[in-house]
Amino acid sequence: MKIGFIGLGNMGGPMAHNLAVAGHDVAGFDTAGVTIDGVTSVDTATDAANGADVVITMLPNGAILRAVADQIIPAMKSGAVFVDCSTVDVDSARAVADQANAAGLGAIDAPVSGGIGGATNGTLTFMAGGGADAFATAAPLLEIMGQKSVHCGESGAGQAAKICNNMILGITMIGTCEAFALADKLGLDRQKMFDVVSTSSGYSWSMNAYCPAPGVGPDSPADNDYKPGFAAELMLKDLRLSQQAAESADAATPLGQAATDLYTQFVDNEDGLGMDFSAMLPRFSKLGR
Ligand code: NAD
């Protein structure tokens, strides 16, 4: 397949590389001039889109996605499919899909879970929204870049699934960190705390797979001085998207709002910027009531 890949950053770079390794003809563009082994570098987003069967975008946010879509949709060949894998707001995902559909193109939003490791190893999870035909065209490519893809529904459904998942993640990470900090002050050994909670009803991915306490549980960013991993500012981005969606859908998400406020405080006013999102534990450890 001829593929255009736009946005070759931490995630897009290895994803494009994996498609090339699988034998696809990949033309890549990034404003930072990044080059990726096996991917043909082109000078503009339009060049990447020209003649492609599928165009994949992996960009920082919805505003940039909309700007790129304005450039490339007129250049895409009829019947081609636009696959956006970025994490963006649901409204931007729907607007871009409508624009693509109106131009005679297929479109899916297909954000990912799994981080840079998943992108490198081809083990991402994709959650997709959009038409069945467009999803069927993209599916073999998603299979190369990931280990699982779920077609969640119409346009925007992939982004909806992504931000709901990450809202849960932000909330459970804060809860897990709070509980460790409380346990410390109650004199409970952290290993004992992990042994109990990881096999009791307080367990979660945050505790069991990504334990925020150094030296306890599986290897995690806590064991590497809280270097990301999944940076606190990316968690904050996703939490803000969840609150933007909650606002436009009139949904009550008090804990999502509280998590957003805490990560805002951590990233903007404390030392959270550039730290892993599990560094909420040392943050709480420093605080009293
Ligand atoms: P990144 O900043 O490393 O990469 C984004 C790339 O887009 C950069 O290389 C940048 O130069 C390029 N870019 C910006 N504007 C452009 C334009 N107009 N045209 C072409 N290229 C442009 O970010 P990332 O970590 O690769 O994340 C990409 C997306 O994936 C984001 O939406 C992020 O929320 C999402 N995501 C990231 C992770 C993660 O762990 N990093 C996990 C899941 C989802």
From TrEMBL:
It comes from the Bacteria. InterPro entries: 3-OH-isobutyrate_DH-rel_CS (IPR002204), 6-PGluconate_DH-like_C_sf (IPR008927), 6PGD_dom2 (IPR013328), 6PGDH_NADP-bd (IPR006115), HIBADH (IPR011548), HIBADH-like_NADP-bd (IPR029154), HIBADH-related (IPR015815), NAD(P)-bd_dom_sf (IPR036291). It holds the Pfam family NAD_binding_2. Pathway: Amino-acid degradation; L-valine degradation. It catalyses: 3-hydroxy-2-methylpropanoate + NAD(+) = 2-methyl-3-oxopropanoate + NADH + H(+). Residues 2-153 form the 6-phosphogluconate dehydrogenase NADP-binding domain. SUPFAM superfamilies: 6-phosphogluconate dehydrogenase C-terminal domain-like, NAD(P)-binding Rossmann-fold domains. Keywords: Branched-chain amino acid catabolism, NAD, Oxidoreductase. Residues 156-281 form the 3-hydroxyisobutyrate dehydrogenase-like NAD-binding domain. This is 3-hydroxyisobutyrate dehydrogenase. It comes from Paramylibacter ulvae. The lineage of its organism: Bacteria, Pseudomonadati, Pseudomonadota, Alphaproteobacteria, Rhodobacterales.
